[in-house]
Design brief:
Bound molecules: adenosine-5'-triphosphate
Radius of gyration: 18 Å
Strand content: 25-35%
Distance between the termini: 31 Å
CATH topology: Rossmann fold
Shape: globular
Structural class: alpha/beta
Keywords: ATP-binding, Nucleotide-binding, Transport
Number of domains: 1
CATH class: Alpha Beta
CATH architecture: 3-Layer(aba) Sandwich
GO molecular function, one term: ATP binding
Strand order of the largest sheet: 6-7-8-3-9-10
Protein name: ABC transporter ATP-binding protein
Order of helices and strands: EEEHEEHEHHHEHEEEHH
């Protein structure tokens, strides 16, 4: 389980995260939802140790952040970070050489799933295809948790559908997924838990199925209550 406990983050004089606490469990898809600037990416960066927090604690399977913990977590940033001149096949080889946890079989399955041509150069990929390749790089390692920053940003409807499909496929297995989005769209029926953020605070944290069956509300209904009370 990823546990975020009372974290606070300040940029200069302004708090961008204020006492943020939530958990993301293995075998579940947890979604951090909020408008632009709510603090979603800052939380992912804090979990990855890429930005320091002023106070609070982050635990992964009960352990504080550290090298052994990072081997359990893969991070898919909101853009590809590979050299643009590389072919996809070269990018895959680079990842296999670099990461002990790289699972070449899963990488191949993902390449087939997204129908990617590994002879293409990364720099020539369309935005949607680049997002798919980015997901291949994030999902191929044998990590127990996957963090994804806005996997749907700027992508056309059919590519979004394909990316959404991967979340309900066996390619995710029993891993814990924590992703961010500012538009819930087709993810609504795929996510288990929603953590709605507003202005650096948690506005609501709930089990989507429970709220649907007990209160008849969708994630968007709850978002309206948080943003337009
Ligand atoms: N390096 C930085 N220096 C100063 N302020 C920053 C920095 N990075 C982020 N912020 C501020 O922190 C707040 C939260 O930013 P963050 O990127 O976490 O939001 P977000 O919810 O991911 O937004 P988006 O949906 O637009 O990606 C914003 O007000 C942003 O301007």
């Amino acid at each position: 389980m990823i546990e975020v406990r009372n974290i606070r983050k300040r940029y200069r004089m302004r708090y961008v995260l204020q006492d943020v606490s939530f958990t993301a469990e293995k075998g579940q898809i947890t979604c951090l939802i909020g408008m632009n600037g709510a603090g979603k990416s800052t939380i992912l960066k804090a979990i990855m140790g890429l930005t320091p927090v002023k106070s609070g604690q982050i635990l992964i399977d009960g352990q504080p952040l550290g090298k052994s913990v990072y081997e359990k977590v893969a991070f898919v940033p909101d853009h590809l970070t590979m050299p643009l001149g590389m072919k996809l096949s070269e990018g895959l080889r680079f990842m296999a050489d670099f990461y002990d946890s790289w699972n070449p079989q899963r990488a191949e399955e993902l390449i087939r799933f997204f129908k990617l041509d590994t002879k293409e150069r990364i720099g020539n990929l369309s935005k949607g295809t680049a997002a798919k390749f980015n997901l291949v790089l994030g999902l191929a390692p044998n990590s127990e948790y996957v963090l994804m920053d806005e996997p749907f940003s700027g992508i056309d409807m059919f590519s979004r559908e394909m990316i959404a499909e991967v979340f309900s496929s066996e390619l995710i297995e029993e891993r814990g997924v924590l992703l961010t989005t500012h538009e819930i769209g087709e993810m609504e029926h795929l996510i288990d838990r929603a953590v709605i953020m507003r202005d650096g605070k948690i506005g609501m944290d709930f089990d989507c199925e429970q709220v649907r069956s007990e209160e008849g509300k969708s994630v968007i209904d709850v978002m309206r209550e948080v943003y337009l009370p």
